[in-house]
Design goal:
alpha+beta, 4-stranded mixed sheet, 3-stranded antiparallel sheet, 52% helix, globular
Length: 471
């Protein structure tokens, strides 16, 4: 069980039906990792190997669009260095896929399941995984509005109906449909399940890039302080051969990756000013999305999508939101109340994971309560309630292989850090409920001593208004 980096051979895995003349290590993209030509340099000093067939994919109009879509959107209003793009991130994820495959190609159990063609599918999917992302995608998807497509669906359509799909079929062994299925999380056997865990799992090529890259551009250390090389070097196949695991040598690196994700959510992605901007955008999109040509919105750049929002907001009562968010002077709404799972749990649980239309009605009810309390009008567009969305973050579950005992154990079982931060509900520790108001209302509302009571009354009023509808 210890030679060649192979873990857990006690479980027999039948050899895949494969052309054994071509090995994973011989794929041109993996061989190109050691080349000093045909490279693209991305921060920080990372060389991304570009083969002819990769270049043809990244030169398509669909992929080039990603160079005009920022990776973190409104985060740059708080961390000005965060102007990196989905294009850069996609190249980083593609590079990680090559590093994962090169490492796992040395694992006999991985080779028994995953063929060279499977590896090609993963390489293409890693490169194209964000193809369906449009500006402010995650904030908009959290609204879960009818008729608004998830980016995975949009990506599948773009691949299937564009030059990208033709290139995959002609130059990637007819893999268009297989790439789409992998990106959509459709597993049809052990090989595709392993590939899915590499693309989107506890320790995946996407997280490994965005934690590092977002931290680098934000100018904070939180997402960079775990040993990525050590973690990649510890990769192996899990006990059931349907996903990846790590050897005990990678345990500390995995713990630090969990902590990096926790701190990045707490200090960057859910920073209170970032969430203020996000809440403003969500209210604006909610108000105007029915006026937008969403098919054009999905295929746009940051600039074109802001123009779409501007046109929609022109006749909307929420036009001031657009001016505050995208106008020449930044005017983010101000935080006047905050509730967490650990503090003010009662109010947190009243508002967390509510459907967005309900939160919007609750904001309206709170504006009414605030108007009475301050003795002047607080309009509906002056008040925003930001809360953890309906969909929860995935839990961090990965196994650790101990060669001496030839046993796999859950990381959460052997790591108190992971048990505390990942196996319990991640959202409860990093995401808070916040009440934001227009800057002109901050002084009056911020002085109210019974704000918590007013929030609770707004919740009760919203719930009571819905009761006749349910009956």
């Amino acid at each position: 069980t210890r030679d060649g980096g192979t873990a857990g051979r006690r479980l027999h895995v039948p050899a895949a039906e494969n052309d054994l003349m071509t090995s994973i290590a011989e794929l041109p993209e993996i061989r190109a990792l050691d080349s000093r030509s045909s490279l693209i340099r991305i921060p920080a000093e990372q060389d991304v190997p570009i083969t002819p067939r990769v270049r043809r994919l990244i030169d398509t109009a669909d992929f080039r669009r990603l160079s005009q879509v920022s990776q973190l959107g409104l985060v740059s209003l708080v961390y000005p260095g965060c102007t990196h793009t989905r294009f850069e991130h996609s190249l980083g994820v593609y590079r990680n896929a090559l590093l994962f495959l090169r490492r796992l190609a040395a694992d006999e159990r991985f080779r028994q399941v995953v063929t060279a063609r499977d590896a090609e599918i993963l390489i293409a999917a890693a490169l194209l995984h964000d193809l369906g992302h449009y500006p402010f995608c995650h904030a908009i998807e959290d609204l879960q509005l009818p008729g608004v497509q998830p980016h995975e669906t949009q990506a599948a359509q773009q691949i299937d109906q564009s030059d990208v799909g033709d290139l995959l079929n002609r130059q990637w062994n007819g893999s268009c449909q297989s790439v789409i299925e992998l990106m959509q999380g459709v597993a049809s056997g052990r090989a595709s399940a392993i590939l899915m865990s590499i693309l989107s799992g506890p320790i995946d090529i996407d997280k490994m890039d965005y934690l590092y890259r977002d931290s680098l551009h934000a100018g904070v250390p939180y997402g960079m302080h775990y040993d990525r090389q050590r973690l990649i070097g510890s990769l192996c196949v899990n006990e059931l051969a349907d996903g990846i695991a790590i050897t005990e040598k990678g345990r500390t690196a995995a713990e630090l990756m969990v902590f990096a994700r926790y701190v990045m959510f707490s200090e960057v992605y859910w920073h209170h000013a970032v969430r203020s901007a996000t809440a403003m955008l969500q209210r604006l999109f909610f108000a105007v999305h029915h006026q937008l040509d969403l098919s054009q919105f999905y295929q746009g750049s940051d600039l074109s999508c802001v123009q779409f929002l501007k046109q929609g907001a022109a006749s909307s009562p929420d036009k001031s939101l657009f001016d505050c968010l995208f106008g020449p002077t930044r005017q983010l709404y101000k935080r006047v109340a905050q509730y967490s799972f650990l503090e003010n749990a009662d109010i947190f649980q009243l508002l967390a994971q509510r459907p967005y239309p309900w939160l919007q009605r609750c904001s309206r009810a709170l504006a009414h309560e605030l108007s009475s309390a301050v003795g002047s009008e607080v309009s509906e567009s002056d008040v925003l309630i930001d809360a953890p969305p309906v969909c929860l973050e995935v839990q961090f579950k990965v196994s650790v292989y101990y060669a001496q005992s030839d046993r796999f154990r859950p990381l959460g079982e052997v790591s108190p850090v992971v048990k505390a931060l990942a196996e319990q509900q991640f959202d409860h520790f990093v995401k808070r409920v916040r009440v934001f108001v227009h800057p002109k209302q901050r002084d009056a509302v911020g002085q109210l001593r019974n704000l918590d009571e007013l929030v609770q009354r707004a919740v009760e009023r919203t719930t009571a208004d819905e009761a006749p509808l349910r009956r």
